[in-house]
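Might I ask for a little of your time on a matter of protein folding? The record follows directly beneath this note:
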Amino acid sequence: MFHKLAAPPARTRDPFDYMRPELFDAKLAALHQAGLHALTLDDLFAPGKTTPQDGFAVTFDDGYQNVWQNGLETLRRRQIKATVFLVAGRLGQTNQWDVAEGEVPEKLMDETQVRDWLAEGHSIGSHSLHHRVLKKLGPAEAREEIAGSKKRLEDAFGVPVRHFCYPSGKYNSTVRDLVQEAGYATACTVRFGVNGPQTPPLELRRISPLYRRELAAKAFHRLARKLRFSF
């Protein structure tokens, strides 16, 4: 699970959402050296297929322009196909949902860049229309965020959109059922872990690509930030 491929800017509230491009390349190399095989979400979770124990899928949340700028060449060289979860109503704009919380604005892929992404053999999924917290919405609004984003992406790019990612990882049974109703094959959470045959396809776990010391630093950073804004 990746977000932004760039050096973290000085004013960011969350430097751990960024990864320097050279470190991204090193982490992909480490996965290969460990004997793991890069697959797509379709490969891993197609109906009737057995999930390989040595397979992994690369996913990017939000669809940042720096992923298009700094990730395509590395993915091509490593022969890895990835999925980017796009905020369908924000293409070509910025991460306004984070800016509202004081985060640094970052550009999102526009339609031309998404077409470049698809031309390289990568896939797209939906991250909703506007990156709203779905479990806080009424059923009609949540349905539009989930099903409406699928239709918008499919109409714009002429490809099936089979995979969903819950904005901010937040969902409940009602939201999950709306994702199923919309016809998605899988949905990704932000829960840490690997997936096996018993994993519900609409509650897939993912692994944050951080070393142990980085995970500890991230947890400390987020706790400190939460405490700072609690007083």
User: Anything to note?
Assistant: The CA atoms of residues 3 and 61 lie 5 Å apart.
